[in-house]
Backbone:
């Protein structure tokens, strides 16, 4: 039976926009998309604000019935306890977060998060009813030494350890050398790696999971290049960084849509 993967355009705000700025941004973005077909469910839009914005954005989305999914940028491996500064997946679920980013390259680099820690965070997300957006990608040194796919494939294999076959997950391929550099991977490069990541999902979770799981590309995504990525059969959307902070630019990225029937 054919499966349709609804494209997912996710905006990672990183450490930008306070809660007041977030209100203005979400309202402007919703207005910019008022006549867009995203309202009919042909594409899913996700916003990943800083922790301090989550309650404000959630309240606005719920009150105005704005069709954006809410996500967090990280979570703790623990659900509760004496872990100062950590944020529990249970708390995020209470805020109606649907998604959580796990393993972003900035967490790996600046917070020394290992593949094992990321695997534990995937489990924390799943047991709290959150969809983990598992981020994988190679550095320029990895690319030169091992090629494009070896490191992200290895990262995903560990992240999926113990994940049940029926789990709802998203995978985001973000070559570290492309993030914030203005130099995106080519669509062909993105397709090659995303296809190999789908093979990992098939191997670990089965063909059904591989067919339904959305695999995103991230790394210098812009309105000028989104169409070329979305034409690739194994690219189901984008994890957008800097461009997700500019209303008109992010709206233009969201407006490019496709249905992926497999």
Residues:
């Amino acid at each position: 039976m054919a499966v349709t993967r609804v494209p997912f355009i996710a905006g990672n705000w990183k450490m930008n926009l306070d809660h007041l700025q977030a209100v203005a941004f979400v309202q402007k973005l919703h207005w910019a998309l008022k006549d867009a077909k995203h309202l009919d469910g042909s594409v899913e839009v996700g916003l990943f604000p800083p922790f301090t914005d989550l309650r404000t954005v959630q309240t606005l989305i719920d009150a105005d019935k704005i069709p954006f999914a809410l996500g967090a940028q990280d979570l703790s491996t623990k659900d509760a306890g004496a872990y100062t500064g950590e944020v529990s997946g249970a708390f995020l679920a209470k805020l109606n977060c649907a998604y959580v980013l796990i393993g972003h390259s900035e967490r790996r680099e600046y917070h020394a998060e290992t593949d094992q820690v990321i695997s534990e965070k995937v489990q924390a997300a799943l047991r709290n009813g959150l969809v983990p957006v598992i981020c994988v990608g190679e550095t320029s040194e990895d690319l030169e030494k091992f090629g494009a796919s070896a490191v992200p494939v290895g990262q995903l294999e560990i992240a999926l350890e113990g994940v049940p076959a029926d789990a709802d997950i998203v995978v985001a391929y973000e070559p570290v050398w492309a993030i914030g550099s203005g130099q995106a991977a080519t669509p062909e490069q993105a397709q090659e790696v995303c296809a190999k990541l789908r093979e990992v999902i098939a191997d670990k979770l089965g063909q059904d999971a591989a067919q339904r799981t959305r695999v995103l590309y991230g790394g210098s995504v812009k309105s000028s290049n989104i169409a070329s990525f979305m034409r690739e059969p194994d690219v189901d959307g984008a994890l957008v960084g800097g461009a997700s902070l500019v209303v008109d630019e992010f709206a233009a990225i969201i407006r490019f849509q496709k249905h992926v029937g497999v």
Notes: The chain has a mean pLDDT of 93.
